[in-house]
Amino acid sequence: MQYTDFVQRAEAVADEIQRYRPDLIGLQEVTTIRRQAPGDFVQGFTAPNAEETVWDYLDILTRALAARNLDYRVAAVVTNADVELPMLTGFDSAGAPTFDDVRLTDHDVILVRGDVDVANPFVYNYTSKIRVPVDDSLWIEFVRGFVAVDATVRGQTYRFVNTHLEVGGLPGDIFSRIQADQMQELLSILAAEDKTVILAGDFNSFPGSDPGSDVPYTQAVDAGYLDTWILRERKADGYTCCFNETLDDPWARLYERIDHIFVLPRGKDVKKVRAKVVGNRIFNMTDEGLWPSDHAGVIVGIRFFRE
């Protein structure tokens, strides 16, 4: 966390937002890091209770946007995984180890530009989730979810949805099953929507799976969602994943497309799509040589035929 300093990376993210000024932004893995000193986890108090904020990614980013006079506000936030574990800090005079507790809280966020009206925010945590054993009596749950708003852009109202699904795995393993279940939950909820749906996020799922399979990308296409990257005029691989963990390799090569923006037209006809991968060029790195994120971003403009 310290090496991949988000304070400097937020400046790079804000630069990209300033360059393109999108109407709406879907953010995943918007983290809050808190600390408790000394910790009490090893004494058996395992419920997350650290309160001293070390890093608040959302606050850091919104401050960077405000410093550029960019009018963006938080439209909706869903709280996902909330995990606290002990961190070794040293040893006391008797040689016994000492611990602080570190708490990580994950969020997905929608930011909206100031001239865009939003209504009906909705947050949801998937019932299907990974559970990891810490010991025989303690399990950690990695909760994921989605967030949605109605957004009125240039006189037309859309349902804008942002999510981050579980990582994929081998066909049929627990990760793949939970990922598929999460996508099924999401699509079943969105099936009740009567507006055009813009569905954005890190789906941890790439094109190329067999029709009818339960991987998230195929589920979306089978449900009538259009992959906006395919609709763009110019063809490119669209890879968004992934930079190295330390985010400092200027020669890193992205190798898969797992971040998508889908559209469910709901009776509208798509006239034109412009789409671009951003945050993937060396000039996007911070002055200290860090990529803005472990994934590149995707920016999409959709034009519909007038009704």
UniProtKB/TrEMBL annotation:
GO BP: double-strand break repair
Domain of life: Bacteria
Pfam family, one: Exo_endo_phos
Keyword list, A-Z: DNA damage, DNA repair, Hydrolase, Magnesium, Metal-binding, Nuclease
Record domain Endonuclease/exonuclease/phosphatase: where: 6-295
Ranges in a coiled coil: none
GO molecular function: 5'-tyrosyl-DNA phosphodiesterase activity; metal ion binding; nuclease activity; single-stranded DNA binding
Needed co-factor(s): Mn(2+); Mg(2+)
SUPFAM superfamilies recorded: DNase I-like
Keyword Magnesium: yes
The keyword Aminoacyl-tRNA synthetase belongs to this UniProt entry's keyword annotation: no
GO cellular component terms listed in the entry, alphabetical order: cytoplasm
Entries under PANTHER family matching the protein: TRAF AND TNF RECEPTOR-ASSOCIATED PROTEIN, TYROSYL-DNA PHOSPHODIESTERASE 2
Protein name (record): Endonuclease/exonuclease/phosphatase domain-containing protein
